[in-house]
Amino acid sequence: MRVLVSDNLGEIGIQMFQEEEGIEVDVKTGLPPEELKSIIGDYDGLVIRSATKVTEDLLEAATRLKVVGRAGIGLDNVDIPAATKRGIVVMNTPGGNVVTTAEHAISLMLALTRNIPRGTSSLKAGQWDKKKLQGREIYNKVLGVVGFGKIGSIVADRARGLRMRVIVYDPYVTPEQIEKAGFESASLEELYQKADYITVHVPKMKETMGLLNKDAFAQMKDGVMVINCARGGIVNEADLYDAITSGKVARAALDVFETEPPGATPLIELEEVICTPHLGASTREAQTNVAVAVADQIIQYLKTGTIINAVNVPSVTGELLKKLSPFLTLGNRMGCLQAQLCNEPLKEVVIEYTGDFQELDMSPVSTEILKGLLTPMIQDEVNSVNAPVIAKERGIKVTETTNAGSEDYLNLMTVRIVTTETTNMVSGAIFGQYEPRVVKINKFRLEMIPEGHSAIIHNLDKPGAIGSIGSTLGNHDINIAQMQVGQDEDGEHNIIFLRTDTPIPDDVVEELRNLPLIKTVTPLEL
Ligand SMILES: NC(=O)C1=CN([C@@H]2O[C@H](COP(=O)(O)OP(=O)(O)OC[C@H]3O[C@@H](n4cnc5c(N)ncnc54)[C@H](O)[C@@H]3O)[C@@H](O)[C@H]2O)C=CC1
Ligand SMILES: O=C(O)C(=O)COP(=O)(O)O
């Protein structure tokens, strides 16, 4: 497995890759997009921070890539839908840099209020601007925190320690939760009207781009100060420039920019603006945390399939993986069996878990069923990341239900598929601890080991039918490894499941089909 680190990663993370048997790591930072594209096809894993842009164009060349790991939080530089479509897991390391980033927001607020950058540069230029650089206290001032997630809540807590009055707006956190944490919950309008300082801590998304714009500034107090340590563009830069030059906003502190690096823009050149080059997460502690986390997560995924902190696929911890492992195998085989039993356009897949599944997150098994089902049907490479997306793209409705009781089995999985022509049902269970069995195909009960070269034969339940199958295969030197006969409820028909040591060639399948008591023969590869 080869891993490429394309942005600066803490040395400890690189060492972890180097020390891992079976993993080779290359560090190539600051590559122009075309150069990165020319080498990405050689790698199974990619480690990034905010500089590398993981675009659809790059992913097109990433034929081997299995995982993108972001040493940090924001994933706005990754085309997540494009990665998902290609079956690439995208993971970040939430939590590792949140204290550091919150401390940076607080540092910027204090530096802004007390003119620290301007004091430094004027003193270095030989001046002593005491009067001009008078600041103000933050004590008892109102801080409006927009976004009460991991970083916003730490900023609120630190500001409380500085004896500020903190008000919070976050539409996805209940007022009770905000109040329980000891802060005042506010609407966005109230926050704009009351705050002396506004700091944003929301992700960059369609809904948050330009959140602080012309209309928002118009609602704010005169002389408000604005801090953006989240993402460029959440505070609209052109509108901020106008709000500062018109005197509405007194000052602003920016760590992030609409384009990075931004160059010398009119906004940055304003005396009222202080800025840092996306330093929010840049401390030794945070970079150690995120480097260790990303290296650990990527190693675990590449070596064991354990998924931690992925944003485009459910997490599967080692423990869950162990518990689910037999069901994953069974699910894949059941999907694969269904695909071969009815190869007509799929409309719907209904997955039912009956029995002792209540405590388990079965979504990875459902994905594995879809993977098994879609793989024989389509050309594209289907995997456990993109199977649900491919199903959705093809207009296949997928539903999953979990029920408590099963009459005959401790755990029963049923996959019902609805095609344009028919409905087909397959049920499976785990025997003992690990043995997958298909136990029902529509009305037929059986106990079939779903693996290898197999065939399903429908025949009339009359003497000689089974013998004729055995002799036909024998005549062609095909050894039967397992044979199971299930009887239809009407007693007239049988379903025969055969497992053979070698595949049954097409001409032999045809010969079987022509036997007098045989109705259908479906060869299977499971
Ligand atoms: N400057 C830097 O170096 C760093 C910047 N960041 C940025 O900070 C952002 C926040 O990080 P975390 O706090 O860890 O994320 P988080 O996911 O814990 O919190 C985000 C919060 O924003 C809230 N939110 C979403 N839409 C909102 C809206 N329209 N209005 C108000 N609130 C809204 C969510 O409910 C959530 O509580 C990241 O997405 C990243 O872009 C993160 C780390 C370092
Ligand atoms: O973690 C984040 O979201 C950050 O913005 C940190 O960015 P960086 O890793 O310092 O380029």
Description:
The chain is elongated and about 110 Å long. With 526 residues, it is of the alpha/beta class. The strands form 4 sheets. Strands 8-7-6-9-10-11-12 form a 7-stranded parallel beta sheet, with helices on both faces. Strands 14-13-15-16-17-18 form a 6-stranded mixed beta sheet, with helices on one face. The two termini are 27 Å apart. The mean pLDDT is 94. Helix 12 links the parallel strand 11 and strand 12 (273-275). Helix 5 (98-113) packs across helix 7 and helix 15 crosses helix 16. It has 18 helices and 22 strands. The chain folds into 4 domains: 1-96 and 283-311, Rossmann fold (3-Layer(aba) Sandwich), CATH 3.40.50; 98-275, 3-Layer(aba) Sandwich (Rossmann fold); 314-442, 2-Layer Sandwich (60s Ribosomal Protein L30, Chain: A), CATH 3.30.1330.90; 453-526, 2-Layer Sandwich (Alpha-Beta Plaits), CATH 3.30.70.260. Bound molecules: 1,4-dihydronicotinamide adenine dinucleotide (NAI) and 2-oxo-3-(phosphonooxy)propanoic acid (HPV). 1,4-dihydronicotinamide adenine dinucleotide binds at residues 72-74, 94, 97-98, 101, 146-152, 169-173, 201-204, 207-208, 229-231, 255-256, 278, 280-281. Its EC number is 1.1.1.95. Residues 454-526 form the ACT domain. Belongs to the D-isomer specific 2-hydroxyacid dehydrogenase family.
Proportion in helices: 25-40%
- The CATH architecture of the largest domain can be named as 3-Layer(aba) Sandwich
Quickly count the domains: 4
List ligands, each type once: 1,4-dihydronicotinamide adenine dinucleotide, 2-oxo-3-(phosphonooxy)propanoic acid
Which strand order spans the largest sheet, edge to edge or round the barrel? 8-7-6-9-10-11-12
Q: Please report the first level of CATH classification, the CATH class of the largest domain.
A: Alpha Beta
Secondary structure tally, helices = 18
CATH superfamily of the largest domain: NAD(P)-binding Rossmann-like Domain
Beta percentage is 15-25%
Structural class: alpha/beta
Cα-atom Rg, whole angstroms? 31 Å
Query: Span from first to last CA?
Result: 27 Å
Global shape:
elongated
Spans of at least 5 consecutive residues whose pLDDT stays below 50 are none
Return the average pLDDT rounded to an integer. Answer: 94
**Biggest sheet record:** 7 strands, parallel
CATH domain topology of the largest domain? Rossmann fold
Total E-strand runs = 22
